[in-house]
Amino acid sequence: MEDDKGDKIADIGRPEDRGESVGLMLPMLIGESSRHRSELNDLAIDLAARSSGFRRSLPEGIRAALADLVRAMNCYYSNLIEGHDTHPIDIERALKNDYSTDAKKRDLQLEAKAHIAVQQWIDNGGLRPAPVSEEAIREIHRRFCSLLPDDLLWVEEPDTGERVRVIPGALRERDVKVGRLVAVSPGAVPRFLTNFSNAYARLGRSDSIVAAAGAHHRLLWIHPFLDGNGRVARLMSHAMLRDSLDTGGLWSVSRGLARNVSDYKRHLAACDLPRRNDLDGRGTLSEEELASFTRFFLETCIDQVRFMEELVQPERLRTRINLWAEEEIRLGKLPQKAGIVLDAILYRGELPRSEVAEVVGATPRHARRLISALMDEEILVSESVRAPLRLSFPAALAPRWMPGLFPERPRVAGDRADSLQVLDDAEELLERFIEPAVMVVWTAIERELLAALDRIGIKPERQYAIITPKTMEHLRHAGLLDKTLEAELMQMRQTRNRAAHGHFEKPISREEARAYLAKARVMIQCLRAKNNNAE
């Protein structure tokens, strides 16, 4: 096929096998006699215990909702490692077939959608062979690449500028160089994949956890495909950990790898190095470097489980969601008693529709309207009109509900706001309603205080009791609050109480409310400045 641009389909025919020995990628495993093995076993045991405990700590309905969000998060970070930055909010829009008008952004949305589709297929048990088998590895690649737009299926030869098309699921038929590594000849790839599968497919649970890092690197070392190897390796690792740890898809190693991407790539490059001396194992490649990467990989996994445990710790999660719901109700974006429904589902995991009226103390008709409003906002989901209601974790709300899960992007129309942006909403509301605007301002202050308490590992004593003598003492001790700021905070709370109780003898004027809002801006900036100094 001719093309003036020099595009070519990857060469079809019998690829060259230069007869390389499969021993070139030994060791595949960290030997039992290695001085590192005991430490790595301990890390594997710790990871298994933490992952299992975290999964069991969550109600089934919450697990399902969280897994959906983590799937988008895993996709975001895995693609970010490759230099493709598609924010989870844009990923979520792509899942609803809402694409950017910019062609490049649309392609990245489609790429993210493909990644999520493959991971969901894995999570649903679709990957029947062992994840390390050639069949599974090729099927992951085939499914991922077959969903990509055509523009993302072309790679350019760095030396010649020739463009070559990637065939979904097809092993490469050309030589490739990755950094300093010249990968094995294309004809040798099937032999190396067979050896790879034999080494990792029949391990016990503990050995499989320890070997996950080694399999991750060795697949990249073989570099079986013309492109897409990084994504395939991370999806394979996800499948391996899912099988050996029963993760439930509730945490993502890709987040940890992306947040330490320099160390991740440095470890991968170091694992390509040859054995240094007689103390460096008995294989061709360095066992010391493989052990170092395994330690890094397992510690990254443990760190991510710990992060998710803290993020969705029930009381903190409830507090964050209830504060958000209170803001939305005050702004008229959610109906009254919406928070009660969310609270009930957070406790129970799911809520039958027939029980909503009783839970909120309303008529069935009002309960149906309440359900409809929460489902329209995509906060609640249900498999059918008769199925129980479950919580959803929209990516747009993640900065509020689960701060730190992924970076916040710049605000655009329709995005949820941070504390200062909530004040902008209050300023608009103030032109119509004084007391509700004051209440929204106070909620922004509470949110900032809650974030400060979160940073120092303190949770409020009661759900809505953010300001208590004990929490104030913690903030003072951490250097986040001084006497002047605390005194102003107490005065502002008094104004909030007047607004909340409709003080008829001393009503709040619009001028006083505007001054209150201005003072709140200064207070939030001061709290943030003190936090930055404390860090």
CATH-level-2 architecture of the largest domain? Orthogonal Bundle
* Shape by Cα distribution: elongated
Rg from alpha-carbon coordinates: 27 Å
**CATH superfamily placement of the largest domain:** Fido-like domain
DSSP strand (E) fraction? under 5%
Number of helical runs?
21
| Range of helix content | 55-70%
Largest sheet: 3 strands, mixed
**CATH class of the largest domain, please?**
Mainly Alpha
Distance between the termini: 61 Å
Look at the structure and give the mean pLDDT: 88
Spatial strand arrangement across the major sheet? 1-3-2
How do you describe this structure in short?
By secondary structure, the chain is mainly alpha-helical.
Can you offer a commentary on this structure?
The protein folds into three domains: 34-311, Orthogonal Bundle (Fic-like fold), CATH 1.10.3290; 313-390, Arc Repressor Mutant, subunit A (Orthogonal Bundle); 416-535, Nucleotidyltransferases  domain 2 (Four Helix Bundle (Hemerythrin (Met), subunit A)). The protein is 58% helix and 4% strand. The protein has helices at residues 37-56, 60-81, 88-95, 103-123, 134-146, 189-200, 205-222, 229-245, 253-259, 261-271, 287-311, 314-330, 338-348, 356-360, 364-376, 398-401, 419-430, 434-455, 469-477, 483-501, 510-534; strands at residues 7-9, 154-156, 163-165, 177-178, 181-182, 350-351, 380-381, 389-391. With 535 residues, it is mostly helical. The protein has 21 helices and eight strands. The strands form three sheets. It has a three-stranded mixed β-sheet, with no helix packed on it. It is elongated and about 90 Å long.
